[in-house]
């Protein structure tokens, strides 16, 4: 009875109060749900202290314990950072932080000679101040994660000076993209008339395609060093594999990810007939700087093939800590190229753009509702940027949660399909061993709570992927 009475009582509040209360209630509901899931997984970390029988053949007890402790530390950090985030956002909403920042932005504009008619400039100042606040409040958390957790578990390779320069560079580059794009989007919405949502959607589509196209060539090199993969057996085999599946490969790069972290990755990018592959140096056993300490001679160059090595070098390679052999790298790329061949990339783009169009259409329907602005403290004005913030971040939040879960489920399905594609290429055995190595190198914990993994994991748990490959890994 008490619950229904409280629900009925909410009906007595003005509409803007009900909207505001619903937003706060949903944000805390999501936080409590995420905390519940995290505690279930944390219990797994705490109680699973021995390697399960089904994992004994693929994981030693030392690595298992290291990964368990690493994930425990990450779980603790996630709990406190999540609590801070939800409390901070609640206080900002309760004490009118958004309208306050808008008024402050207005005063900055007034002092520079821009009156109320310059709403776009006002909006850009608001964005600059909001992102600056977010960067400053997030900096301690980022530093703790990098220099305490990642450092403790052997992943961090950054100095404090490098970290601060990198953070500043990221902020500047973000503003160079965010502010011009936002100003054009606001202008399109202002002059677009009744069908502005179509023009806004098309604009964001073009921007996203341009950013994807230029990111690896012009943006990523501002932060990391990209070098062409040297001529040799690995490059030749990559080119042969790409040609066999009609992948229009133009270049293969190695990115110096090791100067930041020992985590590894690989990806491809580009449109139409201009595809490039990027390999992290930490993925490559022959190029990982973490393995250079195992070389007897400081000047020893990485091998281009597996022949001509003496027994001592072979033993050292066998005991290397980081990265995959060439055959395993090819298997990982076979998986990645499977995403392209099976149309996963195009499907994700289509889903993203359908969602974007739907959101802009609903924004067009809701932007005229003054009660939404009043709910967040904007009684006398309805700025377009604030409308975008309220509708996309708060009003759409339930929809965004559902969509995120559906995309997570779809992603896991795509991962199984890409594994199956690599298997068809005859790479099941090498992909099997590569997944085990990557899990070890990144200290992934192979045991997960079923509900936590269902909600969060965009990739299937390791054991499930290995089982799917195991039956025919000798093919």
Automatic annotation (TrEMBL):
Positions of transmembrane segments: 20-38, 77-100, 120-139, 171-189, 195-216, 357-379, 385-410
Biased composition (Basic and acidic residues): 300-315
InterPro entries: CAXX_Prtase_1 (IPR027057), Peptidase_M48 (IPR001915), Peptidase_M48_N (IPR032456)
GO molecular function, one term: double-stranded DNA binding
Residues given in the record as Zn(2+) binding sites: 335, 339, 415
Sequence segments annotated as region (Disordered): 294-318
Enzyme class label: hydrolase
BP term (GO), one: regulation of DNA damage response, signal transduction by p53 class mediator
Record flagged with keyword Endoplasmic reticulum: yes
Domain Peptidase M48 residue range list: 229-472
Record-stated family: Belongs to the peptidase M48A family.
Function: Proteolytically removes the C-terminal three residues of farnesylated proteins.
Protein name, as recorded: CAAX prenyl protease
